[in-house]
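Tip: read the tokens left to right.
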């Protein structure tokens, strides 16, 4: 199942080039009072809601996908966890280019650990990446995004994929410079997620997915998740060994080699096997 959020926070099921509006199912969510939960209520209840979503989709009128504004498929992530230099070839290209490392020591992911991005940086694919500092280098980074479906603390690698709700395409936009990584990557609009979430049952093996990204038609990134240093399961186990992952948390698994600059007016097209393709503009 491909689940999306669109227009004014409506919930949809994507079928081909059309969306079935199943927003009525959201009436089944629990009512919360202060303090509000630190997780996404839809993702947390997805297992229970799924048959209701399927039933609503069977009766719903379809609307063209091209006519809607796609929001991030997760509306309320508690945290965005990201993996630095998790492809060997990307680690090599960063270490060889001062324009990428700016004199910072670049450690392998086992030593560097993971980092957090501000949830306020999150946008959907119908929005535009707005370069906060267009006079500095801003780079694209296409990544497989993992959406956590249930609480996970100290989960083993063997059980890690069992806590996944689904997957999406992620763009981890990066301002180059000497500042800390999470600071430069948490700018508004610098985390793009979409176009929808494909549920984990439809993508049981995330270890051999092709990733591609073009800018204005020029191929920049072209790799496969088999080249990850830490696999999806490794990353979930690693992250959950430090903190509890909650439903709706987003895990960006790292970008492959070929990162490069974008400028206002550019158009990025990113795709991942089995998930789909997104087109995202860049402005100042």
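Filled-in amino acids:
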């Amino acid at each position: 199942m491909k689940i999306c959020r669109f227009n004014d926070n409506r919930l949809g099921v994507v079928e081909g080039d059309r969306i079935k509006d199943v927003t009525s199912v959201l009436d089944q969510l629990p009512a919360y009072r202060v303090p509000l939960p630190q997780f996404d209520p839809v993702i947390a209840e997805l297992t229970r809601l799924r048959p209701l979503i399927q039933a609503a989709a069977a009766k719903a009128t379809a609307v063209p996908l091209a006519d809607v504004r796609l929001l991030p498929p997760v509306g309320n992530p508690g945290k965005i966890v990201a993996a630095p230099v998790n492809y060997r070839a990307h680690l090599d290209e960063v270490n060889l280019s001062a324009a990428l490392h700016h004199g910072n020591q670049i450690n392998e992911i086992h030593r560097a650990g993971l980092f957090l991005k501000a949830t306020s940086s999150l946008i959907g694919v119908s929005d535009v990446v707005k370069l906060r500092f267009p006079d500095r280098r801003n780079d694209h980074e296409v990544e497989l995004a993992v959406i956590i479906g249930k609480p996970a603390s100290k989960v083993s690698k063997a059980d890690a994929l069992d806590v996944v709700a689904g997957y999406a395409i992620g763009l981890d936009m990066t301002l180059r410079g000497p500042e800390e990584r999470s600071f430069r990557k948490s700018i508004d609009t610098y985390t793009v997620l979409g176009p929808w979430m494909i549920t984990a049952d439809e993508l049981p093996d995330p270890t051999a997915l092709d990733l591609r990204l073009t800018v204005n038609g020029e191929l920049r990134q072209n790799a496969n998740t088999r080249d990850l240093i830490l696999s999806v399961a490794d990353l979930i186990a690693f992250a959950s060994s430090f903190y509890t992952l909650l439903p709706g948390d987003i895990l960006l698994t790292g970008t492959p080699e070929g990162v490069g600059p974008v400028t206002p007016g550019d158009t990025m097209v990113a795709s991942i096997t089995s998930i789909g393709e997104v087109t995202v503009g860049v402005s100042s």
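The first strand starts at residue 2 and ends at 6. Residues 2-71 form a domain with the SH3 type barrels. fold (CATH 2.30.30.370).
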